[in-house]
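Take a careful look at the sequence and tokenised backbone pasted below. I need to know what the token row says about the fold.
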Amino acid sequence: MQPLRIAVLGMVDGNGHPYSWSAMFNNYDKETMAECPYPAIPSYLAKEPVENLHIPGASVTHIWTDNPADASHVAKASQIPTIVSKPEDVIGHVDAVMITTDKGHEHVERCRPFVEAGLPIFVDKPLVDNEPDLKQFQRWVRDGARIMSSSCMRYCKEFMPYRTSIHSLGQLRFTSITTCKSWERYGIHALESIYPILGPGFISAQNTGTKERNIVLFKHRTHGDVAVIAIDDMYGSHGMLQLCGTSASAAVTAQDTFYSFKAQLEAFNSYLRTGERPFPFQETEELMRMVIAGIRSREEGGRVVLLEDIAAN
């Protein structure tokens, strides 16, 4: 197989994915990575044996960041050979692009040149945070664009047993999941933690919190009430899952960040090779409706928002 060439494009405040994701394809320079402004990244990379770092069959060959100084440091740390002066410069030189920013309202314009060029795109979570942009991505995918987006929490290994089966818990009556940071940027981490367990069928959302303290209650057609909590400074809570059923309950916390990220990138790599999506785009659509419904409910005084009213096909 010819190695796939991937471009990493974009870097915003609070998000170090260009460092970590590129290192998982390319390996990394330990001395330079030690200077990464996100200390958790060199910490979890250092725990992995060298042979576990590299995702075979692809490498990050090009990088662009919003601040040019960031690109130079990421390229050195994650062994990326080519820095470009604008994102569009990678067209014709790579097989796919990764949009490594997590501000959903920017993603349509960041993706547009590459959709028009016919390049496959991985978009960091959340794909969008508003209805007009969701409609645009729906049109692009319907017209054949190869776009994939997910949270790494979809691949969290600690949650895997419950994605296989929740039969031992009886009928679920209540589920909860927590995260730190904002609903707009991190709510999707919590949502995509539970979605592979509960499956499609979310009906409504009600956010009784504030911009800094989002308390969102969802109704699921089969699995009852689901509380999704995103509080800005609640850093000790990321990925705490609770499943409560009629026969038993379970509580588990996400631990292995490296595993989740690598599995997510391997899924994209497989999508590039086979053309087969690791999960239907309809799941991403429903998750984005959940993100948007949480925002809309909060902004409208805690009103119950029906998901079917958002970006319906």
